[in-house]
């Protein structure tokens, strides 16, 4: 657009990608967000210093802060976003619902107050329409929540809930609300200019979430038909008009299994997942926001807004998906390659090889977006893109993302906001290898091992004592995967290996470049992208296959036999030590040496990336020693507390 | 001593066999063949199945199993399988106490096709104790290795000298120790002194005097593990160079490690085929050094990112961690890498790190291995502990080693290069061939704060003076304008430049003035 840009950054971000891309950069303070990215004074100074005429607030931080928008307006600097009135109106959950109701937007029907008798409760429930949810108004979250599908269940729910309301909270009020079964989170992107024109740019399906954070998003949604889409779009436009909205905004809805939809809230800013909308509509939302802020009229009409193909976004995070679907991980990206060589792939990232993922900010690595003419095409490309994505130095959630996008329920579109806990009730455990895939993995590891053994013989130049040539073509190996040992016979011809394993035969072909992190192989005629994370002299190999990391140990048959004499390593008893499950800051320490803790009692609280995690004892014991203090920064695996 | 307890049934069997052999001996040649077979079989069994089982139960392999694991399949050529000990005291002369091959297996073989001589002590025979015959066997292969210019690997598993033999076994020790360091081209040794010593966690012990003697002499209570276990020797004493979890792991690592080394000091450092592009740009290096000069980073990040395939074999990783040393390859060619480690004690040089570095530099120089040095050193560690310990003397060892080395020397200053420690770290002044500075380099006498406190003692405006000092000296220019660094380079290009320089320096010839031997400040 030919606009010169200024980036603001904190100390630790002075080498960040956005800083390098901008024409100018200003440091606004030290790492903690409250002192830098949320520090309005420093940002106002930066504006003055550089003579900036407008500010785009991005996604988080000050993007929905009306005070910031006011301060900008006071000095005549344009805020690229809606005006303060809309921010304020939509920022308040209660007020926004009232406005929505007034604008004839569907809201969740419900009743909050004293219900005298069971029959009153039934009457209310019938008005709302089943199913309904009944709980004590004072109870937070889902506590004491009961779901009623008919009159009888409503009476029962009323009895329990009113008792609980009186006894636990001393507050008789009950909340009876429409219960949304299998809820989906579907949101409508709107775009409004300052001249009263408002467009809806179709929906985004964001149902795949963990802890209310989105993980995978797509546009359009498989679930909506054209009519529902239009009605939702029109309601979103009504709401935007009701608050005289301008700029890009998002109206979030919950949609039940019958395609009833209910207003949730409106985000008065650009959304993280906006690229999927850009992909299917061909509009550049940031460009539109800047144009709108400048006062231009929208160039498009509603009928100009298409749905071209399908787009999917995966949020690639530096986090360990094996712990509660993702606990933050930090580190330095020692190797980092985005899969940009593939077509129809877009990667929005703010980091590069060598960047640090630190505890101060959201641990997002990138937004990986693929698109195609159909959903299947976009999904296939996403699978490829995830397999080709090289991230070393931090734990990341690609294993989980790949499992989600290939899961039959996801592929068929049978999803809801409960997808993750429903599909993985025991927590995420990584890809489960079926018999064929297991053989393929074992064969690939064996072939990689042999390749590297052969490579060790390739000493160049002449030595005074000549080397014996390597003329072996067949090997007997033993590969350990999990607790199991597999005998393998492998023979080589050219670049391919024939591997006999577990009663089957696998042919593995490849160009076998051991220096590359990517290991493109053709296994039994199918192209597979594996990644080799490490390969040690001890025979230990870590391979990424089907998105998940597998540790294998490849030994010659003789070595494996001798290895069976080696003593097993005794692993430490973890019940009496508490280690930090993630890097972060200790915010509270609830015990001191000598205290007795009960099983499940909180020992300390670690905060990382805006999240507080309570760590509890796994047995009743006396506290032996405490190794950290509140305020201290700890790394993953650091010893916090020892029990006796 | 348990070692005297020969398994009875086995001994009896052997005796009767030998007797029957004797009967046949005079009659036919076939009997000689049979006797040969019998002896060979007996030699294969070492101290017998029961002792082999006991060895396995301890989580240890037998001498022969170790050799088999270490060498390429079917490459082992054994010598002196028929040698027996010559002791005639304490009943040792009985046939039951004779074992063909005695308590050591010797011979030659190949590791990844390359020739190596090997001896492996057999704990199942008299606890692997060293007899005259045992020593003789070892000396024989050492002599042979010397004549062809091949290395010797010793796999040690021995209780010590064979007490029954008295002085003869001690003479054997003298033989081996004399032969080892001075006469032989090179050894990677699994367990005794020599060039490199690797050991095993939990099962390797090494001490001059054991815990019992220690208790009786100094009244000190100490366990075997604390006194001379792998942890002690790799982290505290610096006697061992690396520890491994068990026999199998150690031998597998040893095979890979062997590939880094030339067969002898007459051979150039080996070059392996390389799949990692020599002109690969390493983008991550552009941001590895933090902005604040007081903030640490991991020197291993730099090393792993630069070397071929990220393959770095670190030597003494748990001892004097403020300096990192080890082997790697650049465009296939073996190099020795020395780097200050800012993560530990700010990467300063102290007594232990100086000695560790010096020993490594001399190893590289002795075996024609080019040395790459990464410098980020704030100086020598101050304090009485260091001064009383002789830091001047020990620091001089590292200075001496770098100065005397005639192999190609390439130096990269990544950040701090302060004072005398800068000189020591393979500087231009010590005949560095190529010396580079990254833009973050600060070559100065000391840090700005300290310098200003001395220059402007008691004066005001210290902050201003400090800023001026930073502006003047905390950058690569003062060194570059004087030619003390050859170029200021973009970190991402470091690998490319080192590979190119090594290509050119391969033909480097530099001879030190003649002397009987140099006088390193020991």
Task: Outline the structure in words.
- The complex is a heterodimer of chains A (644) and B (522).
- With 644 residues, chain A is of the alpha+beta class.
- Chain A contains 16 helices and 39 strands.
- Chain A has an eight-stranded antiparallel sheet with strand order 13-12-9-10-11-14-21-19, sandwiched between helices. Chain A has an eight-stranded antiparallel β-barrel with strand order 24-25-26-27-28-29-30-31, surrounded by four helices.
- In chain A, a hairpin with a 2-residue loop joins strand 30 and strand 31.
- With 522 residues, chain B is an alpha/beta fold.
- In chain B, helix 16 crosses helix 17 (462-473).
- In chain B, strands 8, 9, 10, 11, 12, 13, 14 and 15 form an eight-stranded mixed sheet that branches.
- Chain B starts with 7 loop residues before the first helix and ends in a 17-residue tail after the last helix.
- Chain B is built from 19 helices and 15 strands.
- Classes of the chains: A alpha+beta (644), B alpha/beta (522).
- The interface between A and B is large, with 44 and 57 residues.
Furnish the topology, listing elements before pairings.
The complex is a heterodimer of chains A (644) and B (522).
Chain A: E1 6-9, H1 17-21, E2 24-27, H2 40-50, E3 54-55, H3 66-74, E4 78-79, H4 84-91, H5 93-102, E5 110-113, H6 118-128, E6 132-136, E7 146-148, H7 151-169, E8 174-178, E9 184-192, E10 198-210, E11 213-219, H8 226-242, E12 247-255, E13 261-267, H9 274-281, H10 285-294, E14 310-317, E15 319-320, E16 327-328, E17 331-332, E18 335-337, E19 345-349, E20 356-357, E21 364-372, H11 375-388, E22 390-392, H12 398-406, H13 408-412, H14 419-423, H15 435-456, E23 459-460, E24 474-481, E25 484-493, E26 496-501, E27 504-510, E28 518-523, E29 526-535, E30 540-545, E31 548-556, H16 557-563, E32 577-579, E33 584-589, E34 596-597, E35 602-608, E36 611-616, E37 621-626, E38 633-634, E39 639-643
Parallel strand pairs in A: 1-2, 3-4
Antiparallel strand pairs in A: 5-8, 6-7, 6-8, 9-10, 9-12, 10-11, 11-14, 12-13, 14-21, 15-16, 17-20, 18-22, 19-21, 24-25, 24-31, 25-26, 26-27, 27-28, 28-29, 29-30, 30-31, 32-39, 33-35, 33-38, 34-37, 35-36, 37-39
Chain B: H1 8-25, H2 29-45, H3 49-57, H4 63-70, E1 77-79, E2 104-111, E3 114-121, H5 132-148, E4 152-155, H6 167-183, E5 198-200, H7 211-218, H8 224-228, H9 230-236, E6 242-244, H10 247-258, E7 271-272, H11 299-306, E8 313-315, E9 323-330, E10 333-340, H12 351-366, E11 371-377, H13 384-389, H14 391-404, E12 409-418, H15 419-424, E13 434-437, E14 442-444, H16 448-455, H17 462-473, H18 477-481, E15 487-488, H19 494-505
Parallel strand pairs in B: 3-4, 5-6, 10-11, 11-12, 12-13, 12-14, 13-15
Antiparallel strand pairs in B: 1-2, 2-3, 8-9, 9-10
Helix pairs in contact in B: 1-2, 5-6, 12-14, 16-17
